[in-house]
């Protein structure tokens, strides 16, 4: 039986998701949480096959959380009230297996969870248009590492500090920064950060 965790800061939402999963019979809810910290603790403790995760958690960025969890064996089904091309595309870029809007049919949420438990990506009809629109846009696409470095650049970190934070060589940081400049058409760090903010890249 596939094991599922639910993380959402609204108890009534967790209850509804649990009911949907339990009615299916082939899935087991092993843990619930309300914060990003609890999500990470649950993944470390329970190693669920799937985590149903709200992006609007009180203690941290949901997209960063998706990326962190998706690096392991747990598959992520984003369950959120907000759509939009940028949010949907960034969730999939971060490693989400599906993106389901709150208010969708319970059948859609269940299909997303089952697909994720089988290692598959499932795109509900409600967000397919958003994802297609995002793919059509002429927007630079940065790797996860480039996004991490860009966030540190935006925070004012030096090349040496970035290298220490990410445990990589300074020459590797310089290489990634040059790649970021090229993708964004920027001549310096300030332009890169400004351009990234305009494009909603972080």
Strand content: 5-15%
Helix content: 55-70%
Note the run of SSEs as H and E: EHEHEHEHEHHHHHH
Going by CATH, the homologous superfamily of the largest domain would be: Response regulator
Physical arrangement of strands within the biggest beta sheet: 2-1-3-4-5
The radius of gyration computed from the alpha-carbon positions, rounded to a whole number of angstroms, is 18 Å
Count of all domains: 2
The oligomeric state is single chain
Global shape: elongated
Low-confidence stretches: none
Q: Which architecture of the largest domain would the CATH scheme give at its second level?
A: 3-Layer(aba) Sandwich
Describe the structure.
The chain has 202 residues and is α/β, with parallel strands linked by helices. 56% of the residues lie in helices and 13% in strands. It contains 10 helices and 5 strands. The protein has helices spanning 11-24, 36-46, 62-70, 85-94, 106-117, 125-136, 144-154, 159-166, 170-184, 189-199, and strands at 2-7, 27-33, 50-53, 75-80, 98-101. A 5-stranded parallel beta sheet has the order 2-1-3-4-5, with helices on both faces. The protein is elongated, with a radius of gyration of 18 Å. The mean pLDDT is 88.
Main attributes of the structure:
five-stranded parallel β-sheet; 2 domains; 202 residues; Arc Repressor Mutant, subunit A; alpha/beta; Rossmann fold
Give a quick precis of the structure:
The protein has 202 residues and is α/β, with parallel strands linked by helices.
Helices and strands in order:
Layout: E1 2-7, H1 11-24, E2 27-33, H2 36-46, E3 50-53, H3 62-70, E4 75-80, H4 85-94, E5 98-101, H5 106-117, H6 125-136, H7 144-154, H8 159-166, H9 170-184, H10 189-199
Parallel strand pairs: 1-2, 1-3, 3-4, 4-5
